Amino acid sequence: MTSAPPAARPPSGSRGHRRRTVVAALVLVAALVGGTFALTLDGQRDRERERSERTATEAGSGAGERDEALLRLARREKGDPMAVGDVDAPVVMIEYSDFQCPYCGRFARETKPALLREHVEEGVLRIEWRNFPLFGEESERAALAAWAAGQQGKFWEFHDLAYAEPRKRNSGAFSEKAVVAMAKKAGVGDLERFRKDLGGAEGRAALERDRQEGSGLGVSSTPAFLVNGQPILGAQPGSAFTEAVETAEADARRNSEAAGPGAEESSK
């Protein structure tokens, strides 16, 4: 069997010319593509810059409205059993918490006492509690039990007992029997009423009100706080809360002075 004869090769000069032509064409295409890409990128950057400037302008114009909406979340209800501090305090801190949340417990034991002593008792700060149960049936029962204790003026006593020590989540620490015993220890006088309130529709409606408020703000973990509308997430060090309260107080005083005499009275 014989092999086919080798194909005829073009002259070396023709090969070199064709190679140079291809290379030149590739260089030209690359230059054109690169130029087009650069122009496209520059145009995209310009559009993004314009969009960012427009967004910043729109955000700035709506910031005041958003701040006012967050400030209005402070209920400032006289006789609210789940709040502590003067109803007209210049600073309101709203707290969204779960009684089975370990970080909420840490805040309650380590940070809140100083806030009560240094700011609430001085008339600067009001703290408003919002039930925000995240961890199932026992979290909800604890929330409802705290609300029921509050109906007899013992919310904060129940709160302090519930957070007195770390508790293993969903271990029975907030079973019905346990919360009744906790209510008794907290000083709730009418335990029959407590049991009724614990399972009643009014407590459930109050719980859902708090939960919907937090969910509407995007709260997805606890503890979460609003200090005159400014968010603080997690069990931050006490200095973070002190700084937030002092800044909010200064802003509130400044705004009150800018509004002129009589503005504070007319707003009540």
UniProtKB/TrEMBL annotation:
<keyword id="KW-0676">Redox-active center</keyword>
<feature type="compositionally biased region" description="Basic and acidic residues">
    <location>
        <begin position="43"/>
        <end position="56"/>
    </location>
</feature>
<protein>
    <submittedName>
        <fullName>Thioredoxin domain-containing protein</fullName>
    </submittedName>
</protein>
<dbReference type="Pfam" id="PF13462">
    <property type="entry name" value="Thioredoxin_4"/>
</dbReference>
<keyword id="KW-0560">Oxidoreductase</keyword>
<dbReference type="InterPro" id="IPR036249">
    <property type="entry name" value="Thioredoxin-like_sf"/>
</dbReference>
<dbReference type="InterPro" id="IPR013766">
    <property type="entry name" value="Thioredoxin_domain"/>
</dbReference>
<keyword id="KW-1015">Disulfide bond</keyword>
<feature type="domain" description="Thioredoxin">
    <location>
        <begin position="63"/>
        <end position="250"/>
    </location>
</feature>
<dbReference type="InterPro" id="IPR012336">
    <property type="entry name" value="Thioredoxin-like_fold"/>
</dbReference>
<comment type="similarity">
    <text>Belongs to the thioredoxin family. DsbA subfamily.</text>
</comment>
<feature type="region of interest" description="Disordered">
    <location>
        <begin position="236"/>
        <end position="268"/>
    </location>
</feature>
<keyword id="KW-0732">Signal</keyword>
<feature type="region of interest" description="Disordered">
    <location>
        <begin position="43"/>
        <end position="68"/>
    </location>
</feature>
